[in-house]
Design a protein that fits this description.
Largest sheet: 6 strands, antiparallel
Number of domains: 1
Radius of gyration: 16 Å
Number of helices: 3
Helix content: 10-25%
Structural class: alpha+beta
Order of helices and strands: EEEHEEHHE
Shape: elongated
Distance between the termini: 35 Å
Length: 107
Amino acid sequence: MSKVIAKRELLYSLKGESLKKKIKVLIHEPRDVSSEELGFAVHSGASVCKVEIVGLPEKFSDEVHGADSIQALSMASDVEGYLKYFQRKYDLYWGCGESYFDNEDSL
């Protein structure tokens, strides 16, 4: 089990509902991966970071691969694409209740 090294705490509600619940976006520390593990050729130093969103009704987890740990971590920390995907079903908010996305950015 890898260590969580970064998190973002947000609120969500189902579209059309007012009840807000907590979610967390978690980024795990990078770990090395091998060609054998992935099933295709990678050079020494290739890494992966796990990204999770916990607290939503459905489970979400993804692994982001990079040429090295810095690239894997950099790409994993760009969580906006994941959140925009879930914005189709949920309204997302900062902990203070302010909308996470500007209206023009949400679609």
